[in-house]
Specification:
Layout lengths: L5 E6 L2 H9 L8 E7 L2 E7 L1 H5 L8 H7 L4 E4 L4 H13 L5 E5 L3 E5 L10 H14 L4 E6 L2 H10 L11 H5 L11 H9 L13 H8 L1 H11 L16 E10 L2 H21 L2 E12 L4 E12 L2 H9 L11 E13 L2 H6 L9 H13 L8 E3 L9 E3 L20 E12 L9 E4 L2 E14 L11 E8 L4 E7 L10 E6 L2
Parallel strand pairs: 2-4
Antiparallel strand pairs: 1-6, 1-7, 2-3, 5-6, 8-11, 9-10, 9-11, 12-13, 14-15, 14-19, 15-16, 16-17, 17-18, 18-19
Pfam families: IMS
Keywords: DNA damage
Protein name: DNA polymerase Y family protein
């Protein structure tokens, strides 16, 4: 079983760094964010220049300006830190698929199985911290077996930021109790008792600690040491079938993208085939070094793990990707998959019609070439009313519940909405002699009917219909109907509802 490893990132000056990035002239100017608290302006965040001159979070603005008149005060922006953490968290997904917010000023990353892609945990940490620094954010980061230990070392650690597996107790011993994320009243009690480090109480009996400090205290200590489980909520739902490919050097050519895509498809389809599945939808995400992301997607008519076919579908869209300065990470996702019968898959090549994979692959290519192309398949539905007697199939493999009706003539093309026509008929219940449709007169030579279709009264109200199958002098065949009886309020209303081949 793979050992779990977590990373904690602490943004000591999150909001002030953001302001400095937006307005570079503020870099050497002492400034703070402040908000009204009980009628006074209180500092919520201070930049490093202000902190060096004694300004701290929680200080009243008037007191700070008394000894630092040059201090600039900016009104706090509601939920700014949350928005920044979410944006940075989504950017960090290129380093691991599991990123969670650690408000108000941090992120938690589950890096299990990811660090080796960057050459080990040390290079992984160095790369991530340096990339954030390039974007203007001052961060501290630590890696450990538990979230609690990584959180504590990132904020209070003095020596090494990477804690070896199972060494969390030794790493926590010299740290202050606040490193365990304890509640303020618990910290005050520990201070009064003279317990100034984790090591001063970590070896005490659990019964003693529970009686003095409560269950929450033991929970936090257990989470940091690995005795208690701790769960995080990722920013992005984890896709069950996903493959990632980081690049040692940024990729900026179509050939490079094709190579990466081929590698990802081979890995993903090998996994799908091993589990008896095929994909119906696939999404290729390309994370650029400038922080932006390009993506293309494909869909298939039937579940498949055929690498050449899927590659050809993606290849039609690779030109849509703009690599800019280069792509540093490729992610291939299969958000929609279905079970595939391996026996059926092996004999498809000898079948014809919809069972032939060549048909579905042709449809996939047609849809990929033209995004506006809509290809639909229809099946009979269990309704008497013509508009409801046909439904769109969800896939090329869906089987009809009932057979197509053959006892009565039905048009090859059924209009979704019947169109009114002008008809001349000799007497009631006789087929029309002629009718006018879109300004053109049609003289009827042959006719059959009427076929009465009653309205499905449990679904809607209205008149029945009397349908006629007619042929004009040019051999064109139509499906006409009269709505209701002669002499009723609907008398004389005729409609064209379909065309026969």
């Amino acid at each position: 079983m793979m050992k779990r490893r977590f990373a904690s990132i602490w943004f000591h000056h999150l909001t002030t760094d953001w302001m400095t990035v937006r307005r570079s002239v503020m870099k050497d100017v002492p400034f703070v964010f402040a908000a009204p608290v009980h009628g006074r302006m209180v500092i919520c965040a201070a930049n490093p220049v202000a902190e060096q001159q004694g300004v701290t979070r929680g200080m009243v603005v008037a007191d700070a300006k008394a000894f630092l008149p040059s201090l600039q005060v900016i009104d706090e922006r509601p939920r700014l830190s949350e928005k920044l953490l979410k944006a940075i968290g989504h950017w960090c997904i290129r380093f691991t698929p599991i990123v969670a917010l650690d408000e108000p000023d941090g992120l938690i990353l589950d890096i299990s199985g990811c660090a080796h892609l960057w050459g080990g945990e040390r290079k992984y940490l160095k790369t991530l911290v340096s990339r954030l620094k390039e974007r203007g954010y001052d961060t501290r980061m630590a890696i450990a077996d538990t979230i609690g230990t990584a959180w504590a070392i990132a904020r209070f650690g003095k020596v090494k930021p990477i804690i070896e597996s199972c060494d969390q107790l030794d790493a926590l011993m010299p740290l202050p109790p606040i490193a365990l994320r304890l509640e303020p009243h618990t910290l005050e009690r520990l201070q009064r008792l003279g317990l100034k480090t984790v090591g001063s109480f970590a070896a005490m009996p659990r019964t003693v600690l529970r009686r003095r400090f409560g269950d929450t205290f033991l929970l936090r200590l257990g989470q940091a040491l690995g005795y208690e489980d701790e769960f995080i909520v990722p920013l992005k739902p984890i896709v069950p079938y996903e493959e990632r490919l980081p690049c040692l050097e940024p990729i900026s050519t179509d050939k490079g993208i094709e190579f990466a895509l081929q590698k990802l498809l081979e890995n993903l389809c090998k996994r799908l085939s091993g589990e008896g599945k095929g994909l119906r939808e696939a999404l290729l995400k390309c994370h650029r070094i400038d922080g932006k992301m390009e993506q293309i997607s494909i869909g298939t008519s039937h579940a498949t793990a055929n690498v050449p076919h899927l590659f050809n579908l993606f290849a039609l869209k690779i030109s849509q990707i703009e690599p800019a300065l280069g792509i540093e990470l490729f992610i291939l996702e299969a958000p929609k998959t279905e079970d595939v019968d391996p026996v059926q898959e092996s004999i498809w090549s000898s079948r014809t019609g919809l069972e032939n994979t060549a048909v579905s692959e042709l449809l996939d290519r047609l849809k990929s070439r033209d995004g506006s192309c809509e290809i639909s398949r229809y099946l009979p539905d269990q309704h008497y009313w013509p508009e409801r007697s046909v439904k769109e199939a969800s896939s090329i493999k869906e089987k009809p519940i009932i057979d197509w009706p053959t006892d009565r003539p039905r048009p090859t093309r059924l209009l979704s909405t019947p169109e009114p026509i002008t008809v001349t008929a000799p007497i009631p219940d006789y087929p029309p002699m002629l009718f006018r449709y879109k300004g053109k007169m049609h003289t009827i030579k042959k006719a059959d009917g009427p076929e009465r279709i009653e309205r499905e009264w449990w679904m809607d109200k209205g008149e029945h219909r009397d349908y006629y199958y007619v042929e004009d002098e040019k051999g064109q065949r139509f499906w006409l109907y009269r709505s209701g009886h002669y002499g009723s309020s609907q008398s004389g209303q005729w409609f064209l509802h379909g065309f026969f081949a």
